[in-house]
Amino acid sequence: MSRRAFIRWLMFIGAALVGLSAVFSQLVKKKFLSGEEAVMSPLKPEPVLATAEPTAEPLSTEPLMSYFILSDLHVSSGDPTTGKKLRQALDDITHFNAPVDAIMLTGDLTDTGTESDYKALRTIVSEYKLPPVHANMGNHDYYTIWINKANNWDQGAVPNGKTDAMSREQFKKFFGYEKLYNEFTTKEHSILLLSQEAYVQEKPEVGEGAWYSDEQMAWFKERLKALYKPGRPLFVMTHQPLPANGTDGRTHQLIRAVQFREALKPYKNVFVFCGHRHQDFQNGSPHYVKETFHYFHNSSVGRTLNRAYQQEAKNKAQGLYVQVYANKVVIRGREFSNRSFIAEAEWSIDLQKA
Question: Taking every annotated instance into account, which residue ranges of this chain make up the domain Calcineurin-like phosphoesterase (predicted)?
Fold first, then answer.
């Protein structure tokens, strides 16, 4: 083969190989690519997937605020059992295995409102390192008008020189208050404490009921409006319970009840607590009523009673523990005598959203 012929043969073989390569490439594209993808085109970048930003912070699973409500302590210099029960409650609270941001005392702190009863109360409270303590007055805190010179109950001793005004001043002095009704806020959650302002020495018609002045009712409405935050609970403490819906109260009840309920109507997530009835959480009586607000009847630390209002279980000392979460409020009855929660007194209330 001449040199020229050899070169032509090499060029033929090269062209054939190029052609075979192109045919093979087309066959591969037809097998693995479809339609338009088989047509040569510039590579397109992969689309970027959008990431959703969180719309709100996740709800906290830990309580935002927690506190105890103790009612009807009835501390008496003449009855050491009442002091023993208060010590049981405070021993439990100061060794509690969960947060306690405050303690509310909802009336009948003493049995007769005398100086000796308040002295006994101060002696007990001063033995403990406690979180903030706030209180309102109950009817028994005005009972000093019934006590004779021998420090005994004696209705015949009236008048004995004691007055409702003196009872009010003694209560305010004990807690360092300027007024009988007050508010307390901690960790952005507020508690309003309404207080009985007069007893039978000044207003015989009120009997054992809770009378609130125009000034106190105006303050209550103003503070509700100022403190209310949609989606967040607001707490109200009274001593005497409310009467039937649509009526004003009489003796042993909150007297200006119609106005009280009307003031609460515009607001969601309001929790109202009362004392006075002393009813054992385990005696089957109702302790929670749903109105436009959540209404709870506490038991008693000093004298827990059965449904016949008898002190059948003399060793019991009960109260409420309140935990505030981002989406609910949990309320649990506590038996201080054995440091246990009461299964019959457990409620979990979902908060209505803003």
Answer: 67-279
